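ARCHIVE CARD
CATEGORY: sequence design from structure
SOURCE FIELD: tokenized fold
FIELD CONTENT:
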């Protein structure tokens, strides 16, 4: 029998953390080793399952193969320290982090395997590929990205929207730092050619919706993805964890995983 992959969940009391724990109860590929929550969380010390309790730190953690992180900047930084010190693979979907922490994640990939993604949906991975192709094929058309999420989401635009923007900008030989537009109000003037605009909607219990508009004269292309069940992201993260555990240090992506699986028969 294949040995179970030992996995720890960071951000275990959040929406994604709860979805992951629900799936882990039934997924025989994995053995849960730790469920980390923010310090002060009402879950701290409560029972999870398998004889474990929620905890707010990494002290005394059981041997672990991979950490799945959906926490926040502080939680990610703490998990990163643990993973580097113990040579543990890291799958992270935490978004809205500053450039300094992004640099730490990038540096960590030289010591441990890291798979960082703004979205773990297979459909979003396909959407990103399609947008990249459309942006390159229609370089002079206007490009706008609209995203919608639930009313508790704290960062904007979403990490997925930004990832889509980066993919489109790269396909056109530019960057969001140069051509991204995030705010329009008052009288900003006519749209500057070549810019990539973002619009944000927050409300209700929207799981996640992203639409890329590529607009020309007299016609437009709309590429959309709508998530209706948060479990799709949790399932994708578990697939990423199963694929990443035991790999060599490096920076990996969902595309790397999909391409690797595509090369394997069956």
């Amino acid at each position: 029998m294949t040995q179970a992959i030992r996995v720890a969940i960071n951000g275990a009391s959040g929406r994604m953390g709860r979805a992951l724990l629900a799936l882990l109860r039934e997924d025989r590929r994995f053995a849960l080793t730790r469920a980390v929550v923010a310090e002060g969380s009402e879950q701290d010390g409560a029972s999870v399952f398998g004889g474990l309790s929620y905890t707010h730190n990494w002290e005394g953690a059981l041997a672990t193969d991979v950490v799945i992180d959906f926490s926040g900047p502080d939680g990610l930084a703490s998990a990163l320290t643990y993973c580097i010190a113990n040579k543990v693979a890291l799958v992270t979907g935490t978004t809205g982090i500053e450039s300094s922490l992004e640099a730490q994640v990038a540096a960590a990939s030289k010591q441990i395997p890291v798979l960082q993604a703004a979205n773990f949906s297979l459909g979003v991975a396909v959407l990103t590929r399609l947008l990249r192709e459309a942006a390159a094929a229609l370089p002079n058309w206007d490009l706008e990205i609209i995203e919608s999420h639930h009313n508790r989401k704290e960062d904007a635009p979403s990490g997925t929207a930004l990832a889509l923007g980066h993919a489109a900008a790269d396909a056109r030989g530019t960057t969001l730092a140069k051509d991204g537009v995030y705010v329009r109000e008052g009288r900003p003037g006519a749209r500057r050619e070549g810019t990539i605009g973002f619009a944000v909607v927050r409300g209700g219990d929207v799981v996640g919706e992203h639409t890329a508009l590529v607009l020309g004269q007299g016609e437009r292309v709309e590429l959309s993805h709508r998530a209706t069940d948060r479990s799709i992201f949790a399932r994708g993260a578990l697939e990423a964890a199963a694929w990443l555990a035991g790999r060599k240090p490096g920076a990996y992506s969902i595309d790397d995983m999909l391409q690797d699986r595509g090369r394997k028969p069956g």
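CARD ANNOTATION: The two ends are 21 Å apart (CA to CA). Helices lie at 15-24, 73-86, 99-108, 122-137, 159-171, 176-179, 231-244, 254-263.
SHELF: design records, drawer C
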